[in-house]
Structure formats: C-alpha cells, structure tokens
Amino acid sequence: MSFAIEMKDITKYFPGVVANDHVNLQVKNQEIHCLLGENGTGKTTLMNILFGLYQPNEGTIIINGQEINGHHPKDALKMGLGMIHQHFMLVDRLSVLENVILGFEVGDIHLDLKNNYLKVKALSDIYNFGLDLNSKVADLSVGMKQRVEILKTLYRGANTIIMDEPTAVLTPQEVDELLVILGGLKAQGKSIIFITHKLHETMAIADRITVLRKGKNVITLDRKDTNADDLAMYMVGRHVNLKQDYGTHEPGPCIMSYQGIRLHKKSKSPFNLDIRAGEIVGIAGVEGHGQMELEELTMGLMKCKEGRILLKGQDITHDSTLARKREKMGYIPSDRHKRAMFENFSISENMLLGYQWEPQFSNHGFLKLQALKDHTRQNIDRFSVKVNDPDQRIGDLSGGNQQKVILAREISQDPDFILAAQPSRGLDIGAVEFVHSRLINLRNADKAVLLISADLDEVLHLSDRVAVLFEGEIVALFNKGELKKEAVGLYMAGHQPGVQS
Ligand SMILES: Nc1ncnc2c1ncn2[C@@H]1O[C@H](COP(=O)(O)OP(=O)(O)O)[C@@H](O)[C@H]1O
Ligand SMILES: [Mg+2]
After folding, report:
1. What residues line ligand 1, using a CB cutoff of 6 Å?
2. pLDDT value at residue 197
3. CA angle 163, 164, 168 (to 5 degrees)
4. Taking the domain 5-236, which CATH number applies?
C-alpha cells in the first residue's frame, strides 16, 4: 500500500513539553483523514512538522513514497503539500486573483495575472467556489477567504491539503458549505488532512480518523467502524456521557419575569418569558436574533427602554449590574474575555470580580486577603481547576479552566437565578461535560437558569423548556422532548413547520 503521507515515530520537544511523542500517521490517497484531539494534544505541531515549518527531534516523513529530511515549506509545496493555517495568510488590500498568484509568479506579475486569469477561474469553477476573482479580499466573508486559501494551494498544485481547525471561524451554514467543497476535492483525487476537536464534523466528513491524546497516538480507525461516543472516549481517555439523561425536576415559583421588553428592531411583538425556580429555560435561535440584547438587558448592561424585568417579584429593570448580582443573579457571559475576567489578574483576583464589596471579602473597604485566598483554594478544589497556585495569571489557563473559575465564582455566591450565555463555547469535551453537570446541579437545587447558546444540541439537551427566538420574538415555546431538532431548525429560520411558505 502506498500512502500520500506517512509520518513515523515523530517526536518533538518544546521547552518543558513533549508536543509529539512517537506519533504515527498514514494518509491514503484520495481520503479525508481527520486528526482528532483536544486542545494542546500536538495536532498543529505534527502538521507544522509535516509542512516543514518545524524540524522533528526524531522520526521519518515520507511523502508520496519518498523520504524527506530537513525540508522547508517550499520543498513541501513542490511535493504537492498545501497547508491552510488557523489564521489566514492573505493580503486584504489585494484582489482574489492577486492573492492566488502572489508569491508564485514566474515573470512579471501583471503579465502573470493576465495570462493566468482563466486558469484560476477554471480551478475556482471546478470546485464551485463562487469566487469573483476581482473582488478585494478585505470585502469577503471569512468563509470566502478560506476558499481563496484553498484555491491558492490548488493553484500551486497541491495534492494533499492540510486544514487546521478550518471550521472554528465559520458559521454553521459555512461549515456545511465547506464540507461539500471538501467532498469535491476528494472526488478530484485530493487527500485532505482535517484537524478538528469536533466529533460531529468528524463523523460527517472523515474516511479515516487518527485520534491523538497528550501528544500520543490513541487509535486510527475507519469512520464507519466508530461513533461519536467512542471517539469522545478515545479523545478524553475516559467514558464521556454525551447523551446523559438529566431527568426532570419539578419547577417552583417564578423567579425571573420578562414583561414586554424589546429585543430586536424587527420585532413586531415584545418579548415575554417567565423562568421558574428549578428549571432551565434554553434560548434557541440563529445568532443575531436578540440573544445579545437579552443577555445585556438581563444583566443591566444595556438600557431597557420598553417593558420591565422582575426578579422574585421585584422590579430590577433599571438596576445596575452590581445591584443585580447582590440580589443573587449569577452571570456567565458569552464573551469570557471581555466580560468575565481580566487576563493579567490572578485567579484569586478574578474570583473577586463583581463581588468585591461582599462582606465575605471586604471589611469597610479593606480586602480580606486571607479569606479571598481560602475561598479561591476551596473553589479550585471544588471545581477541579487544573492549577497549583491561586496567584497564577488566569490568562495562562486553558479555556476550560478559565470557565471553571468563572463558574466557581458565580455559583459559590449561591444565586437564585443564573444566566449562562454560550457556557461551553470553545471548551474541550471534558470541560463541556463539567459545565453541563454544574448547570443541572443548579436546576436540581431549585435555581432558575436561563441558557443562551448558539449550539442547538446543547440547548435541546439541557433545557426543561426551550424558547425559539426569531427577530426578537419567541416563535415557539415547548417542553423538553416535545419538538424534534428539525422542527426547531425551521422555527429558527422563520418558518412554521408543517405550513408551506
Ligand atoms: N512553538 C512552541 N513553543 C513552545 N511550545 C509549543 C509551541 N507550539 C506548541 N507548543 C506546545 O505543544 C503542545 C501541543 O500544542 P499544539 O500542537 O498547538 O496542540 P493542538 O494543535 O493539538 O491544540 C502544547 O502544550 C503547546 O503549548
Ligand atoms: Mg492546534
């Protein structure tokens, strides 16, 4: 069997880390091979080695049957390898055509542009990229820019294309389109190495899958011989219950009540919703339909011009964020970096954010340092934050551990209501499972939870009731399990399921 790519026993050290520990990878001709693993498992490093950006400390690389040593990216290109990085490498002020040809001109760039227009156009058309070669790259959507990057590698004769987490920057719609394009590339004989940590993408596109964990191979298998649950187990190293049934819980009295607020400039009618103690109400919807407004109005980060918001029967419509937190509202913001933490501050300092006036931490304006330290230590334990020292900078933690600190801070104040906005965005599977179980614990402890998430699976999985938001209005409100995902999707797109439009 000859392979498009073979990497044998690749080892790569960085100061203090073994990023790749005797890793093996074999990619067949004309296959889509997913390199799957959690953040920090060495996927990017392995691909940088393959592309010649890094030299391995040990190991062998064979491209199309030919062993290569000490190569550079330009050698890799000559051997038919293309790589599309997580951050695009395009020149914004130039056109699509100029970007494709740039750095690969044989003579005068102007002549090259003229002579190769048709060639680039033909390539773009074969794969249905829908690109206008004369548009300026700056004016393109992220999805389109990514196509320019693919076109660039094809123009250079790539046979094997490496894509590093290509869907991280895309909308769900753009992801679907990319998967179609990758299918087209394969049909034309290309091999694709697709790096991801997302299981449903892997199951949707891969022919074969290599799973890495902590810099080592776990397994390589055919997609048809596996499923998302098993892949999760290989990735995390223990059984992960992705479809755990969280059961039901009897709700209590209304805690949070939105009465006639306005979320979207297109709303014809206002937004009304009650959230009871002991229930999770999930908001489903395409982003931009009022989710951000709901988040900001709930926490007093935006002025409420219409209607009112009641917390435990008390009008909080015009209260400050701090006042709301004192009234026992917890908040997990969608923008973790902007709203939830200061990256340069320590974990203890971040544990204090928004609660610095609580008597627990403050004595007539003087910080009770020891109390804060003890509180932080306890929470680090209770929330299994992977860190040794509460004085460590929070910015140095992984996304999952940062989110655990934020959860710990908000939950430890024993809120009656908690707003969880995009609570598991960008987290590893293990951390997602952790966040979910904490939200369920809150529900089971009779807290009211509002979950806003762009991940429909997450909303359907966790919520006791689901409200579908479209242009700022609730177009469907149903109990867990009453509606199928497809029907929810139709409501999200502004259709009435079962009604022809
Ligand atoms: N240039 C570098 N210098 C030092 N350490 C690095 C470098 N690149 C990656 N690492 C470390 O190597 C490990 C693997 O990283 P990476 O290959 O980026 O993982 P992945 O792509 O799977 O998220 C991580 O611990 C990371 O911090
Ligand atoms: Mg990476």
Report:
1. 14, 17, 19, 37, 39-45
2. 85
3. 110
4. 3.40.50.300
